[in-house]
Amino acid sequence: MSHEPHRRGWLKAAGASVAALWLAACDKLTENPRSAAVLKSAEGLTRRAQRLVTDRKALAPEFTAADISPDFKPNGSTNPDDPDYVAHAAKGFADWRLVVDGLVERPLTLSLADLRKLPARTQITRHDCVEGWSSIGKWKGARLAAVLDKAGLKPNARYIVLYCADTLDPTTLDGTGQYYESIDLIDAYHPQTLLAYDMNDQPLPVAHGAPLRLRVERQLGYKHAKYVMRLEAVEDFAHIGRGNGGFWEDRGYEWYAGI
Amino acid sequence: MTDKPGAKPAKLLVYRHAGVTRLTHWINVLALSFLLMSGLQIFNAHPALYWGAKSVFAHPWLAMDAMEKAGHPVGVTTIAGHHFETTGLLGYSGKPGAQEPRGFPAWATIPSYRDLADGRRWHLFFAWLFVINGLVYLAMSLINRHIQRDLWPKRAQLAPGHIWHEIATHAQLKFPKGEEARSYNILQKAAYLAVIFVLLPLMVGTGLTMSPDIDAAAPWLLELFGGRQSARSIHFISASLIVAFVIVHLVMVVASGTWNNIRSMITGRYAIEPEATGEAAASGDAA
Question: Does residue B245 belong to the interface with chain A, where contact is any CB pair within 8 Å?
Fold first, then answer.
């Protein structure tokens, strides 16, 4: 039929317009604070549901030495150029100290040697990046529970905030470009939650967070703060950074990263 | 025959889809559309797939990359070691002057621009809607016997001769009329059952297996799917099969009567054409 090509062109144009409208609408909905809040509501549901079905002490799967990734991918900062960090690294972290303060009975200052004397755990676990990939590594570190018991948490402490040495976003001028993370006490006291100082039987390399990084095995990679300098026990984290509990959380990612 | 000579044979309007089937169908359309497009956004954060527990970065079985070729960037899709140039669609795409390396193109993702955090928010929100809607559908369809009565194959339908007959008539786009059109044919039943009881549950199962928390709660999921990266691959393949089903589904909707099908999924009423013999009789009358 003679009008067929014309009709097809019209249909094609209509289809393309509908698709463009749909996409524009989705972008608008993403940026609109009210619809964004609706989408965000699923996070609380996910956290509660996962906490409900997962035993507090349920262990993340552990692997064998044969499973260790030879190509474990470092992500985020891989070689911080912050002057304090560079100075510590130059001295092999001999003068480096971990500060533990905030809502604790006994604030601590711990050297790497002090940390190595605390109850430790070794585990071969899978690291799941929010981007989708996984690598497997062997970690040895002080159990975070042991550090917190040593400091003695005050009853109103609800979260542990981890401050890091690296500025991941140097373009931010308000000081929120510094990496930090926070976890609640369920994760802080989990048996596999470590302040790791060894990776694959070697001192933690700079690319993976030397001299100390968090392992919080039931959450995604961005929760596993590297280059940890200070732990602060807090009641809430609204006053820290942009108030969402972490560097990536301040940039739209979920605070609860169990999925 | 009650038809007047020359008049079209009367169509019979039957009640085909229960309210709960229609409602959950359209919620599912909405949820799966958002899940697919936000899923492609998430895929784009690391557009490569692996088998096993971990990623062996040098050996993805599927990858979409941007590469240099004769001084120009090109999109290259690699499947099981075979390279295909897919510039403009996969690996490298965008409007003229604003092309960029990205797995799937902007028109296929939510949001259209690259934003993993927002893609995850859309995905996990609609994952909940999809699961709740699916559970309502399953519960109600067992209670009102939709599954047992309409979807489960009858013994006679499973005879090889019958199945072959259905494949042959479908291939010619000939659709049943009269009494036969009241119920689903065996190919429809097989397709719907595969989607409802295999592909959609597979999406949920492999999706949950990618959660490090669920892996602690239910490590058997890792055994079932062969590791987290395998689960991610199966999630992708299963989603692709659902897209393939939807394409065939839409083609069949158009081929077997667009408006009749759409009306039946909105109002529940479906028009059935009388048997061919009736038509022959009618035309005989006219002659």
Answer: no
Structure tokens at A249: 């959380």
Mean pLDDT of the B166-177 span? 89
Total Cβ atoms within 10 A of residue B112: 18
Q: Is residue A210 part of a domain?
A: yes
* pTM attached to this predicted model: 0.92
**Cα separations (Å) of B124 from A136, A167, A184, B11, B236?**
25, 30, 22, 45, 16
Instruction: Assign B239 to helix, strand or coil.
Output: helix
> Which residue's entry shows tokens 């429809």?
B188
Query: How many residues are given for chain A?
Result: 259
The parent domain of residue A154 ranges over 60-251
Question: Nearest C-alpha of chain B: how many angstroms from A241?
Answer: 18
Q: What is the CATH number of the domain that holds A147?
A: 3.90.420.10
Residue A178 lies in a domain: yes
Question: Is A191 a domain residue?
Answer: yes
Burial A19-38 (b: 16+ CB within 10 A, else e): eeeebeebbebbeeeeeeee
Calculate ∠ Cα B56-B58-B63, nearest 5°: 95
- Kindly give the interhelix angle for B186-194 and B228-255, rounded to the nearest 10 degrees: 150
Interface of A with B in 187-206 (CB under 8 A): none
User: Considering its fold, how many domains does chain A have in total?
Assistant: 1
pLDDT (0 to 100) of residue B157: 93
Best B121, B229, B254 member to test A by mutation, with max A CBs in 10 Å, is B121
Instruction: Using CB atoms, pick whichever of A42, A59, A131 lies closest to residue B46.
Output: A131
Task: Kindly state the tokens that stand for B197.
Answer: 């009881």
Architecture of domain B12-47+109-282: Up-down Bundle (1.20)
- Do B233 and B61 form a contact (C-beta atoms < 8 A)? yes
In a domain, A182, yes or no: yes
ipTM score for this prediction: 0.93
pLDDT in tens, B45-63: 999 999 999 999 999 999 9
Domain boundaries, chain B: 12-47+109-282, 49-103
**Chain A residues closer than 8 Å to B120 by CB:** 130, 253-254
Q: Are strands A228-234 and A98-102 parallel, antiparallel or unpaired?
A: parallel
What's the rounded Cα separation, in Å, for the pair A192 and B173? 60
pLDDT, one tens digit per residue, over A55-104 is: 999 999 999 999 999 999 999 999 999 999 999 999 999 999 999 999 99
A15 in B contact zone (CB under 8 Å): no
